[in-house]
Design brief:
The chain is mostly beta strands and 221 residues long. It folds into two domains: 72 residues, 3-Layer(aba) Sandwich (Rossmann fold), CATH 3.40.50.20; 119 residues, UDP N-Acetylglucosamine Acyltransferase, domain 1, CATH 2.160.10.10. It has two helices and 24 strands. The strands form four sheets. Strands 5-8-11-14-17-20-22-23-24 form a nine-stranded mixed beta sheet, with helices on one face. A six-stranded parallel beta sheet has the order 6-9-12-15-18-21, with no helix packed on it. Strands 7-10-13-16-19 form a five-stranded parallel beta sheet, with no helix packed on it. A hairpin with a 4-residue loop joins strand 22 and strand 23. The longest helix has 12 residues. It is globular.
Amino acid sequence: MVTKNKQYLLYGGSGHAKVIAECIEANHQLVGGVFDDNPDSKGLKNLPFLGEYKIKNHNHPLIVAIGDNKIRKMIVEEVKNLFGSICHPSSCISPTVKIGEGTVVFHNVILQVDCVVGSHVILNSGASIDHECSLGDFVHISPKATLCGNVKVGEGTQIGAGATILPGIRVGNWATIGAGAVIIRDVPDFAIVVGNPGRIIRYYEPANNKFWPFGESIRTK
């Protein structure tokens, strides 16, 4: 997953970017600089601050270091650049796993045999993904979440910290699974699910927009 002999560039200067930078450095690679469109941003300590991203093809692989799935998707679709992926060396990844571009795998993540991970996915600290799981693009698996075998997660979905998804469950696109939820049945697109056992409390409102797959408004079940 590491692009050898190249520096990485980061888009975003938040705490999430700090963890990605640490993953890069733990692989004995370099962070060549940090872009941030926020005019008040000063970048990350001890790393070159490159200011606002200019749309051009830089020579170094870029990682979009934005935790929000919707914003990450928007930026990726605007940027014209080689994307890099990075995995912290403490992660345990089967050699049969496939990982897409722009994806980051944080400390102590477990990825078991024949998992397929899409592009620009975040696998956060201590997440456990068992055999034959499939994660769509722009998914975020939060710290300590557990996906049992053969779970399918659709594009842009957020799995909350400490959530558990039982074997064979299908979770739709742009859904949100609350922290600590236990998912025992399939979850439709745009659903917001909480509790043990998980229950749908409301839905995001779908939107026909190039960048924003749903609006900020929500509807009740």
